[in-house]
Amino acid sequence: MEKILIIEDNDEINKLLREMLETTGYEVKSAFSGPEGFLYFDQENYSLVLLDLMLPGMSGEEVLKKIREKSTVPVIVISAKNEIESKLDLLENGADDYITKPFDVREVRARIELQLKKHGSAAGNGNKIVFEELVLDKENNTLFANDAAIPLTKIEFSIMELLMKHPNKIYSKQELYELAWEDHYIGEDKTVNVHISNMRKKISEHTKGEYIDTVWGIGVRLKKA
Amino acid sequence: MEKILIIEDNDEINKLLREMLETTGYEVKSAFSGPEGFLYFDQENYSLVLLDLMLPGMSGEEVLKKIREKSTVPVIVISAKNEIESKLDLLENGADDYITKPFDVREVRARIELQLKKHGSAAGNGNKIVFEELVLDKENNTLFANDAAIPLTKIEFSIMELLMKHPNKIYSKQELYELAWEDHYIGEDKTVNVHISNMRKKISEHTKGEYIDTVWGIGVRLKKA
DNA sequence: TCATCTTTATATTTTCTTTATAATCTCTTG
DNA sequence: CAAGAGATTATAAAGAAAATATAAAGATGA
Question: Which domain holds residue B188?
Answer without folding.
Answer: 128-222
